[in-house]
Amino acid sequence: MFPYLTSNQSLWLMVLLILWAIVLFGGFIFGNESETHRTPAVNRMASSIILVIAGWSWFLFCENPEIRPFALLIAIGMTFGFGGDLVLSRLLPIGRSVILGMLLFGVGHIFYIFGIVQSTQRWGYTAVPPRMNALIVWLLIGLIGWYIVVFRGQKPSVLHWAALPYALLLASTTGVAMGLSLQANDFIWLTIGAGLFLFSDLVLAGELFADYKFRSVGDVVWLTYGPGQMLIVYSIGIAHAVIL
Question: How far, in whole angstroms, is CA 188 from its chain's centroid?
């Protein structure tokens, strides 16, 4: 399964991946929590916890010094992402805090970006044009997405403006990931994961800021966000396969 790990380590990571899929997609198929979420909150949080465990498992199993820093930063980023999930879930006594959720997700993405950029340099994928072009393109996509979904037609508040740097931060993650994948094609799954995260957040922003409501809108968010996070976390395995 993962030939660069022991059989027990590979089995553990595959079990986590299968369990994550069962919890998230099974919750959607068999659940019926509310009009906006078929997937129960407990399934959503459990799927996120599983990815935290997977991230730290990858780090603990990683013996390659070229990959270990990348695995650590991805694991930390996923942990902050789980914190954001909790804050937005309404399961905590403090209720739902959009600002705190954005802050936690933002910190998580700073770790993702740092991990990708640092590793891109360490691994020798230092060509400037693909990295800069990818970053510029995705920053423009983030800016346009923020304008259409959050800003246009609204009376902007502090929260609306705060969503701009947050959107650009998420877009930057996709940009630096694409800058890597343009030089090492196997990392396209990391780019797709970051892109799915950005897409899910734009859908969520539409729900929060522009009152975009439709049935199972929350499931659209989670069925793009969850796989996005999974692809980011399991990109540690791609690094194992690519970086000798």
Answer: 14
Query: To which residue do tokens 């800021």 refer?
Result: 209
Cβ partners under 8 Å of residue 241, min gap 6? 4, 186
Burial of 29 (0-12, 13-18, 19+ CB in 10 A): exposed
**pLDDT exceeds cutoff 70 at 108:** yes
Instruction: Specify the pLDDT at position 244.
Output: 66
Residue length, the chain? 244
Which residues touch 30 (CB under 8 Å, ≥6 apart)? Answer: none
Contacts made by residues 212-219, CB under 8 angstroms, sequence distance 24+: 212/149, 213/36, 215/35, 215/36, 216/35, 216/36, 216/37, 216/38, 217/36, 218/34, 218/36, 218/37, 218/39, 219/28, 219/36, 219/37, 219/38, 219/39
166's tokens: 């947050």
Tell whether the model's pLDDT for residue 72 goes beyond 90. yes
Instruction: Identify the CA nearest to 202 among candidates 217, 187, 181.
Output: 217
Q: Which two tokens stand for residue 103?
A: 């802050």
User: How many of the other CB atoms lie within 10 Å of CB of 103?
Assistant: 17
Query: What pLDDT score does 1 carry?
Result: 67
Q: Would you say 147 and 167 are in contact if contact means Cβ atoms under 8 Å apart?
A: no
The token duo for 137 is 């393109």
By C-alpha distance, which of 139, 135, 239 is closest to 184?
239
CB of 167 closer than 8 Å to CB of 146:
yes
Token pair in block for residue 162 = 């705060």
